[in-house]
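S.,

Sequence below, as promised.
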Amino acid sequence: MHTALSIALSALLAHAAHAAST
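The prediction came back faster than expected:
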């Protein structure tokens, strides 16, 4: 998997987790 895509997925998951916990 491309690094940029991996970073994008990680950022998306982090944002989703933060939004869900807020």
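The longest helix spans residues 3-21.

Coffee later?
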